[in-house]
Amino acid sequence: NTIAESWSLLKEVKLHYIEAGEKRHPLVIMLHGFPDCWISWHYQIPALAKHFRVIAIDMKGFGDSDKPRSKSSYEVKKLAEEFNDLIATLGCRRCIIIGHDIGALFGWFIVHTYPEIVEKFVAISAPHPNLYWSTVPSTSEFNSRWVQFCQLPELPEMKALDGDLVILNNVYTHLVKNSGSQEYLDAYRYAFARKEDWIGAINYFRTFPYWRLNINESYQVSTLLIAGNKDKSVLIESIIQSTDFVEKFSLKVINNASHFPHQEQPDEVNKVLLNFLVGKCALFHLPVDYNKRLQMEVMD
């Protein structure tokens, strides 16, 4: 599968993404966390591209996507509208969302506000937003003190650059411990080397903690929750509790993984993802003409 780099120009923002897989296959959108970019999914993209059209986005404010400075650009409602526009721009009516951390929090918002465009949803290391902010453990690098600190102008962005980006070493301990992962650490250092690389990213902490979903009933989108059994950034109890908001769900705890199970135990996570998304039937939602063509070939 070839991997291509592309941009999507929406009304007010240009989003950068990596695309793999065939356009006739069901669309999977991958949403990274903080501080991260599309590279987060380097183990998943080739595995998923065998079955899906995979698009791994640099979320607004990250990587090579536009990085508007204003806090209002990162209001949840605005981001959700832009996501809806993105799906239409890609020529699709529906998609599968796979999110991690802040990306999964955003995915929860999409599933509740635009359920008609979501085929299935996967949330990795992220409880439901109505639970997330009140249950972040103090052991998290981005705990309630961090959220309060982020409300200050300029200072959090300056702090992030401290000590040769020591914040990245604190977040990506699994990469620091693995000498074979140096190229990925270097890529993250490059992606967050300048103050302007942190402004949009930190703006998520200036908007997301103050949004809650007004929910009358659980939603119907089939959902998979994935958590690492050694994650110090979220409480496993809050992920279990998140199933209260979902009608149809699966929950998978990944052993020997902390906050980045998709990077720490990629083979296990890929197996879980494919089992949930493809299952025993690899044709779960292929275009009609493709299904017809297959039936004709079988009949021949």
TrEMBL record:
<comment type="similarity">
    <text>Belongs to the AB hydrolase superfamily. Epoxide hydrolase family.</text>
</comment>
<dbReference type="InterPro" id="IPR029058">
    <property type="entry name" value="AB_hydrolase_fold"/>
</dbReference>
<dbReference type="InterPro" id="IPR000639">
    <property type="entry name" value="Epox_hydrolase-like"/>
</dbReference>
<dbReference type="Pfam" id="PF00561">
    <property type="entry name" value="Abhydrolase_1"/>
</dbReference>
<protein>
    <submittedName>
        <fullName>Putative soluble epoxide hydrolase</fullName>
    </submittedName>
</protein>
<dbReference type="InterPro" id="IPR000073">
    <property type="entry name" value="AB_hydrolase_1"/>
</dbReference>
<feature type="domain" description="AB hydrolase-1">
    <location>
        <begin position="26"/>
        <end position="264"/>
    </location>
</feature>
<keyword id="KW-0378">Hydrolase</keyword>
<dbReference type="GO" id="GO:0004301">
    <property type="term" value="F:epoxide hydrolase activity"/>
</dbReference>
